């Protein structure tokens, strides 16, 4: 796992191309670290996850490690690494995008589901093959899936373990947009740049509000959400946005 900076975009690279970017235990442990690094960089406004190489976003967890790292007493420790990685992604305050090419399977799909927006190329394939391996898929990992697809579709994916081509994945809600393979990088950068050009406090407030209302619909933290909205109205960016509108120019937001 590594972070590459490109202007206001931070690219988090899932880098294990020899194994279709399968996540080793060490890579799972690196996810919170690299996300924290991107969060701490004030110049990064949008985080994009992508796979290294040309063949896969991620084929999932590295199954070759399961005999020793994910069986018996060690299984709980391995799952804790998964949980920490998913929490780091889903709890990230900055907007996140998955740029998906090729295989997006198992743990790789779970990672993508923890991001806000998912773009995929025409060759992308998706699957959760837990039933073909006999492993359990816990409730914490199920929540992002159910936020993206209807329950009947989630059951179909989990019960069959089969691969879904990108058109079907798009129809069920796994991905936002399908683009050509040669256009994926450019379209992802364009989307990320469009988001990065907007007021960061407003974008973060929108993200936190949507996440809070969907994850905790019965007891959302309205006080915190109201405070974030109030901070937007008191910000320098709000003053800049109004002034830019009156002067008929693009605003230059500072994130404060």
UniProtKB/TrEMBL annotation:
A GO biological process of this protein is:
fatty acid beta-oxidation
Q: Which UniProt keywords apply?
A: Lyase
Domain of life per record: Bacteria
Q: Which Pfam families match?
A: ECH_1
Q: Which InterPro entries match?
A: ClpP/crotonase-like_dom_sf (IPR029045), Enoyl-CoA_hyd/isom_CS (IPR018376), Enoyl-CoA_hydra/iso (IPR001753), Enoyl-CoA_hydra_C (IPR014748)
Write the Enzyme Commission number(s) for this entry. 4.2.1.17
Q: Name one GO molecular function term.
A: enoyl-CoA hydratase activity
The record, for PANTHER family, names: ENOYL-COA HYDRATASE, MITOCHONDRIAL, ENOYL-COA HYDRATASE-RELATED
Q: Which family is annotated?
A: Belongs to the enoyl-CoA hydratase/isomerase family.
Q: What is the name attached to this protein's record?
A: Enoyl-CoA hydratase
Q: What organism does this protein naturally occur in?
A: Hyphomicrobium sulfonivorans
